[in-house]
Write a structure and sequence with these properties.
With about 290 residues, the chain is of the alpha+beta class. It folds into two domains: about 10-115, Phosphorylase Kinase, domain 1; about 120-290, Aminoglycoside phosphotransferase (APH), C-terminal lobe (Aminoglycoside 3'-phosphotransferase, Chain: A, domain 2). It contains eight helices and ten strands. It has helices at about 15-25, 80-90, 135-145, 155-160, 210-220, 230-235, 245-265, 270-290; strands at about 25-30, 40-45, 50-60, 100-110, 110-115, 120-125, 175-180, 190, 195-200, 205. The strands form three sheets. It has a five-stranded antiparallel beta sheet. Strands 6-8-9 form a three-stranded antiparallel beta sheet. A two-stranded antiparallel ribbon has the order 7-10. β2 and β3 form a beta hairpin. α5 (about 210-220) packs antiparallel against α6 and α7 (about 245-265) runs antiparallel to α8. The protein is globular and about 60 Å long. The N and C termini lie far apart (about 40 Å). The mean pLDDT is about 90. The chain binds adenosine-5'-diphosphate and magnesium ion. Magnesium ion binds near residues 35, 36 and 187.
Amino acid sequence: MTSGRIRWAQLPEAVRGAVGERLGASFTARDTEHSAAAGIASLLELESGALVFVKGQRERVPAPGAVLEEDDSWWGPGWSPVDELDLEEAVNPHLPPSAPRVLWRLDGNGWHLLAFEGVAGREADFVPGSPDLAPVCAALAELAPLPAPPGVRLPTAWDRWGYYCADGDRELLAGSRLLHTDPASTNVLVEDGGRACLVDWSWATVGPAWIDTALWGMRLVSTGGHSPEQAWQWAARVPGWTVADPKAVAVLARAEARRWHDLAAEQKATADSIARSADEWAAFITTRNRI
Ligand SMILES: Nc1ncnc2c1ncn2[C@@H]1O[C@H](COP(=O)(O)OP(=O)(O)O)[C@@H](O)[C@H]1O
Ligand SMILES: [Mg+2]
């Protein structure tokens, strides 16, 4: 269980009580295992069998004497995990049909909670031959044509990866589509019926659709153990991949690899091996695209 993350039972009684009141039914809570950033992430099963997924962050409490930063630069000094929760709530109505919808929000007693439709299923398996790979392709294909929602402030792909690119590359990452940008197997749930749905939209971004396919390709290599060639074959099944600008794809893949090396330098768990896979994927794309 990552630091900062707590179990349902550790939530203040007042918070758990408020949720019980909001649900109007008794429930059992199961803490999800793979939560990367949430303060709390639990799946609640009501006596009716209905599932509600609750994700939350502690209220921002400025250090004594410190003022809450007004700057709203992405991930700047004023950025907090609550901003990620707010972004996830704001983008939710605009997500692909398969993505779980926000049911309600509760703020108070030191916590901000978002409740989502609970998905009855399991995290996707990315290994070669997995029956989940085609449904994930379908989920990315469902997302690809969606425009970034007007009226929702989202980071651009350049805000996310510009730091790891050459100045002249800005245009290569320009685009107006809604992106997920964290297609890790822990953020893809396969429903009992076999459909895959993308969860955890706290990093929603605006840019060209092929970016999510490129990031998934990297995860097929890093988490699934695919060869870059095998990962490419799966990526090519997602609409838009084979027509994407080869130079732009190579620039993004290299930028993502650099980002993982930075995370590895910060000793982020598993970042080291992911950084190596990201290098392999970027090198393959660079060679294949003769960039
Ligand atoms: N709607 C949902 N229904 C059921 N389980 C979910 C749902 N959304 C997320 N999960 C599970 O909870 C875990 C943590 O949620 P996630 O939104 O990914 O939080 P974090 O931002 O902390 O990674 C996910 O890895 C997934 O297994
Ligand atoms: Mg997650």
